[in-house]
Specification:
The structure holds two protein chains of two kinds.
Chain A: E1 4-9, H1 15-21, H2 26-33, E2 35-39, E3 52-56, H3 62-74, E4 77-81, H4 83-86, H5 99-107, E5 134-136, H6 143-154, H7 166-172, H8 197-200, H9 217-226, H10 231-242
Parallel strand pairs in A: 1-2, 1-3, 3-4, 4-5
Chain B: E1 5-9, E2 19-26, E3 29-37, H1 44-48, H2 56-61, H3 68-83, H4 89-119, H5 134-155, E4 164-165, E5 168-169, H6 175-202, E6 214-219, E7 230-233, E8 237-239, E9 250-252, E10 261-263, E11 269-270, H7 273-280, H8 286-294, H9 307-331, E12 347-355, E13 358-366, E14 372-378, H10 380-399, H11 404-417, H12 422-425
Helix pairs in contact in B: 3-4, 4-5, 4-9, 4-11, 5-6, 6-9, 7-9, 8-9, 10-11
The chains are: A alpha/beta, B alpha+beta.
Chain lengths: ~260, ~425
């Protein structure tokens, strides 16, 4: 039997699910190998019986945590789709401030008490709420990587996600180093797998695939020195996608992942 | 009318984001009818506080996956307005091409994948793959691919574009790519006309419902406005003072929704393809007018369901307009132009453009270090929420005698006609209270 796949979304731009629509004709190949039983963005039908849950978005409210736990309890395999789900993404920028402060800045004195839609906590990645089995990184995800992960799982194989820096792929594309062009690129500490798409289009990497589990801290310090950049600049660059994953005291560390 | 109906659609399907429809009818009387937005607020404007001027574009792009090019362009226009950055003619043409690509992508996604199944009485487009209408599905896929491919070519990536930067492009397409694009666009024009004929001949079309309302969008003397223009209203005409847009657009908070509502001359207004059509239909391209005529769409049209047809007409218009733009780039020999050096200064800038769902405004205040002190984004879908609510209030009594399932479907179709982008609309910041 084909594995049953369900798609879900929380706080996000839904751009990662859009990449699935952007597979164009290949969607038809996808539905040959898996059975899509729920995908609110494109279909009315819905089933609570599924093997694989693909979840996009960050978790912000108790009602969202509750819904995610329910999804986890129903599936065998849970895949985090895209930066909002894998590392919290841009939604974590606001974690620099307490939720009360952000809410006050936004809702001023409006009475949002006892209204569950407005009950917002700090932003969490999925693995801060439930165990996650696989990660499809990126903002947005890379369509080819999505296909590889889903095909591997449909065949009962382990998908492989790179744990080396974007620089490796950037070099392969024969790009001029973005630091040489005066840009502050996070390629050296960011997980590859995107094909170095941003540097290859002339823009610095913002770190959307998350920081490597063991980045070469010495190399980064060398770079800062060579291009006359400060550690504060580096910290500021990491805010966009990696607020909370970047610990200035211990160098670069990932938020501890919950073990299954 | 003496029936009881209770409808509670949690998370309307085939729309972007989370919205609910709640209807409670007791003995024929509407007790409650609400279009609710339950999407978690994302606080984008709060997140922008303290970010550098050159980070605002890529952060605000993430407000929406579908209209990330539009957010990027409104963001760049606001930043460039604040820092007095001028762009070249080539950049101007490329940005218009980018906005066409996104409008095409978003419209065909909506008409083809999200609204089309309703016309064929299906839950999604997937069953079409094994039906006699597979050819229509393949046409939709082809047009979707064309739009995405064009955006990839111009922006480096269709969702969350890369090459769009302050003052220009970090990379431009080659002449060879543009020639290839020209060929594909010509082919796309033919396919869109075929699809329009299929929808016209093989479906019953959309419900016949009218409600007079106000339409707001950009208008330009030069063209059917997308990238540039003045704010225009079917009620009050042109509003020139773009930096004081808040004098015109009144955004306010309602407790049933994590997204703001908006009003102007009446209690609600509509933005988007139908609004643009109602304001600027005379400037539509030849083929765009043909598609509108095929469905008897004429300005002013007060049927919100016709937004789907206005989108289809705009798709064709965007293709024809892109052909003209590609010719300009080929004639003038496209070249690599690195954006010039930017002088950082204190100031406020406002950027407005038409994105698939309507008029989008970004407004930034930068300090002397080039860091963002205050930001406000006026999102198309927010401007439509009140109009959706008002439409529902008028539509329900007209369909109340129908079976519950049909009422539910009709209301969902109404919401879908607006092609709401709910993630966008819960981006949130400046709030006013009624």
């Amino acid at each position: 039997m084909k594995p049953r796949v369900a798609f879900f979304d929380f706080s996000s731009c839904e751009g990662c699910q859009l990449q699935i629509a952007n597979l164009e004709e290949e969607i038809l190949d996808l539905i040959e190998i898996v059975d899509v039983v729920s995908f609110r963005e494109v279909m009315k039908e819905h089933s609570d019986e599924y093997d694989i849950a693909v979840v996009e978005g960050s978790i912000m409210r108790p009602m969202d945590e509750h819904r995610l736990r329910k999804i986890r309890s129903r599936c065998k395999t849970l895949i985090a789709l895209g930066a909002c789900a894998t590392i919290g993404g841009v939604n974590k920028i606001r974690n620099q401030w307490a939720p009360e402060e952000v809410k006050k800045a936004v809702y001023k004195d409006a009475d949002t008490k006892d209204k569950e839609f407005f009950d917002v906590n700090q932003t969490k990645a999925l693995n801060e709420v439930v165990p996650v089995d696989y990660y499809i990184h990126g903002c947005p995800i890379n369509r080819d990587e999505f296909k590889r992960v889903i095909s591997a799982l449909a065949m009962g194989k382990e998908p492989v996600i790179p744990n080396y820096p974007v620089c490796i792929e950037c070099k392969k594309n024969e790009n001029v180093c973005l630091f040489e062009l005066g840009k502050f690129c996070l390629g050296p500490i960011t997980r590859a797998g995107c094909g170095a798409i941003c540097p290859s289009n002339g823009e610095a990497c913002d770190g959307c695939r998350g920081i490597l589990s063991k980045p070469d801290v010495e190399c980064v310090m060398d770079l800062l020195k060579r291009y006359d950049l400060s550690y504060e600049d580096l910290k500021s660059r990491c805010v966009i996608y990696n607020t909370g994953s970047f610990n200035p005291k211990d160098g670069m560390t990932l938020v501890r992942r919950r073990k299954k | 009318m003496s029936k009881n109906v209770n409808i509670n659609v949690q998370h309307v399907t085939r729309v972007e984001g989370h919205g609910n429809i709640v209807l409670d009818v007791k003995k024929g009387e509407i007790k409650k009818l609400e279009w609710q937005i339950s999407e978690a607020p994302r606080f984008f404007e709060a997140m922008l506080r303290g970010r550098r001027y050159d980070e605002l574009r890529s952060i605000t792009s993430r407000i929406c996956g579908i209209c990330s090019i539009g957010h990027s362009l409104a963001s760049l226009k606001a930043t460039e307005d604040a820092l007095d950055v001028k762009i070249s003619e080539q950049t101007n043409v490329l940005r218009r091409l980018a906005i066409n690509g996104e409008n095409m992508q978003s419209h065909i996604l909506h008409v083809g994948y999200l609204a089309f199944p309703d016309l064929l009485k299906l839950g999604s487009v997937f069953p079409l793959a094994d039906s006699k209408n597979k050819d229509a599905l393949l046409k939709v896929v082809k047009l979707h691919r064309l739009a995405n491919w064009m955006s990839d070519l111009v922006c480096g990536r269709t969702t969350h574009p890369i090459r769009l930067s302050i003052g220009g492009f970090s990379m431009v397409p080659t002449e060879k790519q543009l020639l290839e694009l020209k060929k594909e666009l010509k082919d796309g024009l033919k396919t869109t006309k075929e699809l329009a004929n299929f929808i016209k001949n093989k479906t019953d079309g959309f419900p016949d419902f009218k409600r007079e309302t106000e339409y707001i969008g950009l208008s330009s003397k030069k063209e059917y406005a997308f990238y540039d223009g003045d704010i225009n209203s079917t009620d009050t005409g042109i509003f020139k003072d773009y930096k004081n847009y808040t004098e015109m657009i009144d955004e306010y908070f309602v407790p049933q929704s994590t997204a703001l509502h908006a009003k102007h001359a009446r209690e609600s207004y509509m933005v988007g393809a139908l609004a643009r059509f109602n304001l600027n239909s005379k400037q539509l391209s030849k083929a765009g007018k043909e598609v509108a005529d095929l469905f008897n769409l004429k300005a002013i049209n007060y049927n919100p369901f016709m937004n789907n047809i206005a989108q289809l007409a705009e798709y064709v218009h965007n293709v024809e307009n892109s052909l003209e733009l590609v010719d300009i780039l080929l004639d003038k020999k496209i070249k690599d132009e690195q954006p010039g050096k930017i002088k950082i200064k204190k100031g406020r800038g406002v950027g407005i453009c038409e994105v698939p769902r309507g008029m989008l405004i970004h407004d930034y205040t930068l300090n002397d270090k080039g860091r963002c002190e205050k930001a406000n984004c006026v999102i198309p879908t927010n401007q439509n929420h009140a109009n959706i609510q008002k439409d529902m209030e008028e539509f329900v009594p007209q369909i109340i005698e129908k079976p519950k399932k049909e009422i539910e479907l009709n209301l969902e179709m109404l919401v879908r006609a607006y092609d709401p982008c709910i993630s966008c609309s819960t981006h949130y910041l400046d709030v006013k209270f009624v």
